[in-house]
Amino acid sequence: MFFQQLINGIVLGSTYALIALGYTMVYGIIELINFAHGEIYMFGAFVGMILVTVYQVPFFIAFFLAMALASLLGITLEYLAYRPLRRSTRLAALISAIGASIFLQNLALLIMGSRPYSFPSPFVSKVYKTSFVTVSKVEVIILIVSFLLMLGLTFLIQKTKIGIAMRATAQDKDTASLMGININKVITVTFAVGSALGAAAGVMVGIYFRSVTPMMGLMPGLKGFVAAVLGGIGSIPGAMLGGLLLGIAEVMGAAYISSQYRDAVAFAILIIVLLFKPSGLIGSSLQEKV
Amino acid sequence: MISAYYLQIIILVGINIIMASSLNLITGFTGQLSIGHAAFMSVGAYASALVTLKLGLPFFVSLLCGGLVAAFFGILIGIPTLKLKGDYLAIATLGFGEIVRIVFLNLEITGGAVGLRGIPKDTTLLWVIISVLVTLFVLYRIIRSRVGRALIAIREDETAAESMGINTTYYKILAFGVGAFFAGLGGGLFSHYFRYIQPNSFGFLKSIEYLCMVVLGGLGNMWGSIIGAAALTAIPEFLRASADYRQLFYGAILVIMMRLRPQGIMGEEILSKSNLTESPFLSKLKLRLKKQKNQDI
After folding, report:
1. Which of A104, A122, A152, B105 is deepest in the core (most CB within 10 A)?
2. Residues 254-293 of B with CB under 8 A from A
3. Are residues B217 and B264 in contact, defined by beta-carbon separation less than 8 angstroms?
4. B187 assigned to some structural domain
5. Prediction ipTM score
6. Is B82 part of the contact surface with chain A (CB cutoff 8 Å)?
7. Does A92 sit within 8 Å of B258, measured CB to CB?
8. A128 - beta bridge partners?
9. B chain contacts of residue A225, beta-carbon cutoff 8 Å
């Protein structure tokens, strides 16, 4: 029972980690909570679902197309809703982000309707059993794909030229700019990569729960943010760790405390973390600058 | 006489003016972004409805109880979370709002997901008008006083306000307490007018609706909140827009207003020049200048 819950928690947590990465990357660079990130996740799930069911595209191609289209949406969003506000206050940018989130959510509601669409799992519902845990093939695939994506991201951030530029920009925008880094390009790439990861999570959650709805982005979006804060916002390993821990905590909370309070677990964790260690588990503490 | 339909719109406008003005005290005047204002409303709505239903006390007392319980929660959530700044505070208020909704969904005394039914219809137009006037009067007196100036100072520059001897945590909690009190009052009027409440009528989107009214009217402007609340309540009714379009419209308003006129219809330039929370870019620049100065010395 315990190990089974642990596995479920890790599977759920790895999708939270993917969402959290999008938040944390954007926050690391422009210090904005990209509230519409949950909607990008929802968009990715819809694109994947439509490609697979309507156009009969093979699953993994649909998966990458969903990531690519979500990147475009992320870039567009940044260009329309955030870039004009870069020189204005953080409150203004945050309100704009909330507005963008509500707008996209309701646009999806208008276009797709409120009823859930079923996302048929492309994998044979094979189940691997050991003496004390049962793992389905979908869960294994989610774990492997998430792991590969995170590995790829770590490589991108640590080894490539654009990754170095991203880290430099996160540390100090002005100096990075003086060193010849094109800040606008870095921000665009950050949004593209973060959105692609969010969409990947969306598609995988879609096949995991076999359902896609316009409102599906709201809760995972918020929880992804909680995961990012838990790990330490701005920190990439932090987002991965935070996502996994949040997934495990949520599943354990639902199993051992009360399933009705499942969604409250995340928010309770959020408030506790914010109170006692606002810098998160791995984040560096930031001093208020005058 | 006014028809029942128009009466309902007028009463809703009144309740929303109370909600928007009280949120304006927190977000517009004190500069603390709260996206959980509907949670205070729901606490007030439930508290006052339960006082009426279970204890049978008069309407006035139950309204007051609704306000006080909401204020209590405002202070309770305020004390620990108000040390947080900017974005973090916004997320904490959102988390608080969701927790309140989930708790109400699961408590027995609040009727769970079914909600509370059969609340007597005590809210009349007169009650609403009196409540609106009292709310606006009290908020106006607060803003025009020493307290109000302290709140605005916190909005303009928290660190500077603190170094001027303003106890920022105290004043922020005060703003949350007063704001929550009036939100609770609005909730009490709401529950005693519609006679039926359930947790999901006070969700995240409701909080966004109030934020939208404040932003549209103008952050930190009392007339702005009144106009914003009236416009966003009445116009969709008269246009007969469906609820779906309404939300789409709210989202668009927030983005477009921030881009074109961040100070709202009535507001002064508060968001663009002197900042609510300073942009990180500018603060880094200042820090660098300061360091340079120190080195020169």
Report:
1. A104
2. 254-256, 258-259, 262, 271-272, 275-281, 283-288, 290
3. yes
4. yes
5. 0.78
6. no
7. yes
8. A135
9. 91
> Which has the closest alpha carbon to B187: B78, B90, B30, B51?
B51
Residue B116 DSSP class: B
The minimum CA-CA distance between B99 and chain A, rounded to whole Å, is: 5
- Per-position pLDDT tens, chain B of length 297: 678 888 888 999 999 999 999 999 998 888 888 888 999 999 999 999 999 888 888 888 999 999 999 999 999 877 776 667 667 788 888 888 888 888 888 887 777 778 888 888 888 889 999 999 999 999 999 999 999 999 989 888 888 888 888 888 889 899 999 999 999 999 999 999 988 888 888 888 889 889 888 888 888 888 889 998 998 888 777 766 566 677 788 888 888 888 887 777 776 654 444 444 445 555 555 566 666 655 554
Report which secondary-structure segment, H or E, holds A103.
helix A90-112
The residue of chain B nearest to residue A96, with distances taken between CA atoms, is B255
Does some domain include residue B241? no
With an 8 Å Cβ cutoff, are A98 and B92 in contact? no
Give the C-alpha separation, A260 to A238, whole Å: 28
Taking CB atoms and an 8 Å limit, are A174 and B285 in contact across chains? yes
Domain limits for position B121: 4-204
The answer to whether residue B282 is domain-embedded is no
Rounded Cα distance, B122 and B131, in Å: 13
To 5 degrees, how large is the angle CA A203–CA A217–CA A16? 65
Q: Are strands A117-118 and A127-129 parallel, antiparallel or unpaired?
A: unpaired
CB contact under 8 A, A90 and B283: no
3-state secondary structure A210-231: CEECHHHHHHHHHHHHHHHHHH
The answer to whether position B264 is within a domain reads no
Q: How far is B122 from A100, CA to CA, in rounded Å?
A: 39
**B281–A87 C-beta distance less than 8 A:** yes
**Number of domains within chain B:** 1
Taking the Cβ of residue B204 and every Cβ of chain A, the question of whether any pair is shorter than 8 Å is answered with yes
